[in-house]
Write a structure and sequence with these properties.
binds manganese (II) ion, Oligoribo/pAp-PDE_c-di-AMP_PDE, Bifunctional oligoribonuclease and PAP phosphatase NrnA, 6-stranded mixed sheet, 311 residues, Diaminopimelate Epimerase, Chain A, domain 1, inorganic pyrophosphatase (n-terminal core), DDH_dom, 5-stranded parallel sheet
């Protein structure tokens, strides 16, 4: 693929490469970013490569991030993975860089960067990074493989979503051949804290269901504080109401410290991203997000969603 050669050419041309991704990182953000860093360090040993952004405690088993001074950006190549829009890039200093490359699997709503490799046919940005390594015949270090594999697993719903293709397994197979400990990775991924149990209990006890099959839960900030959670961590719970025959769409509203609500749309078939776009957000067909400014807008969203299911 020509675009992969272009990306490799840029990596060769720069001495400093900074890799970034979206705010409130998830497994795919971690995997695509830290995986790419490991790949560049292994295959281009003369480069200085940094991965920056805030970290999430529950993802620390994947790896950690670097601190970078402002002046490092001016001669650097920045590669942003897994981030559809500019406002959500973690660390807005990306704009100081000499050149920017976007690698992403979300719909290309806000194009940015001199080179864009955007393709929604991949389960994850991690799958893209793994595929790139295979196509360019890069050596794949074990820890990079583990990070990328973890990113594919989390964004594909453990290889369950329709977006999973034979290519996904080709990439996964190549990654696994590096010999990382799959069971150790899954153990880290699946270990929960008891505080999560009490929170899940809260969701099960308090959600509302309409006759059209819309389930909603509005979580006040006081409730999240009680469980040591923040709205930013709620994507982890967005599928708590999945898998019930009577529930066709489920929306989680979680109050943020600025009194706005983070909205997570999920469905078992209904297209939800248009709804998210209507409220200033976006995402995938059956998994999307937005921000609601207040409870009135929360109610508007609930009405719209219920109407959509009734059609
Ligand atoms: Mn992703």
């Amino acid at each position: 693929m020509e675009i992969l050669k272009d990306i490799e050419k840029q990596i060769k041309e720069f001495n400093t490469i900074i890799i970034q991704r979206h705010i409130n990182p998830d497994g795919d953000a971690y995997g695509s970013q830290l995986g790419l860093k490991g790949l560049i360090e292994e295959n281009f040993k003369d480069k200085k490569c940094y991965a920056i952004g805030e970290s999430m405690e529950y993802l620390n088993y994947i790896g950690s991030f670097d601190k970078v001074e402002d002046e490092v950006f001016k001669d650097a190549l920045v590669i942003v993975t897994d981030c559809g829009n500019v406002e959500r890039i973690d660390d807005q200093r990306f704009s100081l860089a000499k050149k920017i490359i976007k690698i992403d699997h979300h719909p290309n709503v806000t194009p940015y960067g001199e080179i864009m490799w955007v393709d929604t046919s991949y389960t994850s940005a991690s799958e893209m990074v793994g595929y790139m390594a295979m196509q360019l015949k890069w050596r794949i270090p074990t820890m990079a493989a583990r990070a990328i594999f973890n990113g594919i697993v989390t964004d594909s719903g453990r290889f369950m979503y329709r977006g999973v293709t034979p290519r996904t397994f080709d990439v996964a197979s190549r990654l696994l051949s590096t010999g990382f400990d799959l069971e150790e990775m899954y153990k880290n991924l699946n270990t929960k804290k008891l505080s999560e149990l009490t929170f899940i209990n809260y969701i099960y006890s308090n959600f509302k269901l309409t006759k059209n099959g819309l389930a909603t839960i509005i979580v006040p900030i006081s409730e999240m504080n009680k469980h040591g959670l923040s709205a930013e961590m709620m994507n982890k719970y967005a599928n708590t109401l999945a898998g019930f025959k009577e529930i066709k769409m489920w929306i989680t509203f979680s109050e943020r410290s600025d009194k706005q609500y983070r909205v997570e749309f999920r469905s078992s078939g209904t297209i939800v991203n248009q709804l998210a776009v209507k409220y200033g957000g976006g995402g995938h067909a059956q998994a999307a997000g937005a921000i609601a400014q207040n409870l009135k807008i929360v109610q508007d969203i609930i009405e719209d969603a219920d109407k959509l299911l009734g059609e």
